[in-house]
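Changelog-adjacent note: as of this version, every example in the card shows the full chain rather than a window. The one below runs 670 residues end to end.
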Amino acid sequence: MGFLSPWFLAGAAAVALPLYLHLLRRHTTTPRPFSSLMFFEQRTQSSIRHRRLRYLALLAARLAVLVLLALAFANPYIQRRAPSASGANLLLLVIDNSFSMRAGSRLADAKREALSVLASRNPLKRAQVASLGSQLQVMTEPVQDPAVLRAAVERIGPGDSRNNFGELARAVRSIEETVHAPIELHLFSDMQRTGMPASFAEMALPANVSLFLHPVAKGTEPNWAVESVRAPSQVGDPKKAHVEAVVAGYHTPAASRVVSLVVGGKVVDSRKVEVPQNGRATVDFPSLNVPYGLSRSEVRIDSADSLAADDSYLFAVERSDPEPVLFIHESSDSRSPLFFGGALASAEEASFTLESVGAERLSGITLSKYAFVVLSDVASLAPEFENDLVRYVRGGGSVLVAAGTSMAHSGRIPVLNDRVMAARDYSVDAEHFLTVAEIDSSHPAMQSSQGWAGVRFYYAVAVDPGDARVIARLSDQTPLLLDEKMGEGRVLLFASGLDNLTSDFPVQPVFVPFVKQVARYLAGTEDRSGSRLVDSFLELRTAKDQAVSVEVIDPAGRRPFSLEEAASRQSYQLTSAGFYTVRLANGRQDLVGVNADRQESNLEPMPADVLALWSGSRTPGSGQMAAAGASQDREDRESLWWYAMVLVLAAAVGELLLAGRYLATQAEKP
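Full-length structure tokens:
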């Protein structure tokens, strides 16, 4: 027996209080008249009789209340030994099915080892099966049925995610809080070093979790892989597009590898490269001859190791003719279409053609055929055309609005319908111009942000940014470039003109890369990537409105969304390697090649001392069950607090009854 709060036992000293009060009981008598005291002898009366304790049962009840109350707050408990073989603890089997487990027979060996542990377990013990990739996926509830557990082990297939032992520890901590019982954790893995988190403390397990490791890798294996590929997602002229691939060797000797460019399942080019020992080599394919439309492509090396899944790198590319861009300007403005069109045409791998139209000649234009629209300082638009333009943006189109002197005089920004708060002419100030003070370089339109410091702005309009994202500000904090979403589309507002009158921006070197990045961003090709990594997320829609359905077809040909999900999903996690066919909410068709994280290609295991520290040196051999942990007894604490409080209540009730019996005032007899 023990006490969780033994200092409360000092409260038992309070039993002296009722005892002291009993001893202080004073003797009182009723005065009576008498004729004279002369015949009485004067003597000292003994008080011993009056200090004698009376009502002993009542005193004992009061003392018991105080003693039991102190005992209850000391929180007494008793320890009972309970054998773990009774099935109270949990056997948790975790099988690593990350990408590196595809090497050789690692996954099959891990599953065979797990079945061996299941066969040797105590039938009364509950068990649970889970797989480990980037997250822990629970395959069963804690059960005793061996058939259910074996089926769960057999059902685990190879995955493409990256291993994460920190996520394993976090998930086990969550399970421990749920089951409230000791856990015997068996991990079947290649113990890959790249699966370790940045801090070893993230792998820490609760005190009542016993970790038993079952390594299935036999040391470090050499492995070659296509580590990365740089290729355009969109191609206009195949002769101007090139593909660059990096071939890496992990713990490999110097060797020659044949690298092939494959388009649509056919090899279109092959080159031989020398990969140094434990090094990398770069291969460049000078052209990318693909047919029109979306093409499935890959860079592949000849297989020479046990992990063949990383010998190719997938990417998708689309070949199309240059897309038209509608440029709307005032008839008196001949400078802005000249500057913008020249920058758009001179950009590397230009895939846009500019169609310049005056603001008075907009009837009969079909907006859906344009990649995006530019409004260059247009004073006003016909209401019908502006409504069509708003519908075009909400349906997935994009507009660049340049606000110069004409829009400032009109007092409003078309499409956005924002009010012009002020027109600021810096040319009349002492400095004659302002410069850019702040730039959000994380925005796709500002990736080429060098050179902005030398641009002089003579004129700008001030608008309330509201919910828009401010990308750039002038030195007086006036927003210069804003990005606002409308439905599935977006509007970029440039608070100055595209001519060389409101600024010298069009004649600065930064103007051409800015126009290129803005064009790709507005056309939707900037965030379009022909290849992604497993477990990354694909954005399916811009707006939160559940209006248009999306569609995803995974590498196995399945459609993972129900009709309800297709109308509401904002994003989708790419959990498998292969090609995904996507139809986004803005109507755009896309093809994405997904590849496993190449950190999984490094098959080096964790050092032995790290494994020993993590598991406490519990590393059973092949097919061996750690029976010692199963047969050990555990001690449970059973609190006696409630029992003590029941006794306190009983003593209090007894004290009330005795007090009512002994101390009730009796009517004095005459």
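Structural remarks: Residues 254 and 277 are 4 Å apart (CA to CA).
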